[in-house]
From TrEMBL:
One of its GO terms (molecular function) is metal ion binding. InterPro entries: CENP-V/GFA (IPR006913), Mss4-like_sf (IPR011057). The keyword Ligase does not apply. Keywords: Lyase, Metal-binding, Zinc. This is Glutathione-dependent formaldehyde-activating GFA.
Length: 113
């Protein structure tokens, strides 16, 4: 789980985005699939949202068809997962000061570069 501070995520979410990478082949929606809409935010990258309420749900890339970046704010099931990194931390605006000690990277974390 990472916290992304890039301008694209902030604009799409209204704030920094907390997301977890999930295997799309193992992920299953329990209901509401008919309400999911996707749009191509950049070439090859899709962002999904609920057509009824506008909630951002996930993003995915055409070149990584088995990977979803699930927006954790939409998960109702309790989890003990916590963020492991801030990515694009150099883009954090002054009003969103970071006050934790998890690693910060100017781009993606090194394991995803």
């Amino acid at each position: 789980m990472t916290v992304c501070h890039c301008g694209s995520c902030r604009k799409a979410q209204g704030h920094s985005c907390v997301a977890v990478v999930v295997d799309a082949t193992l992920f299953k929606w329990t209901h509401g699939q008919k309400c999911i809409r996707e749009f191509e935010s950049t070439i090859g990258k899709k962002r999904a949202f609920c057509e009824r309420c506008g909630t951002p749900l996930y993003s995915r890339r055409d070149d990584l068809p088995t990977v979803l970046r699930l927006r954790m704010g939409t998960v109702d099931t309790p989890t003990d997962a916590t963020p492991v990194a801030h990515i694009y931390a150099t883009d954090v605006p002054a009003w969103a000061a970071l006050d934790d000690d998890i690693p910060r990277y100017s781009e993606l974390e090194p394991s995803r570069m």
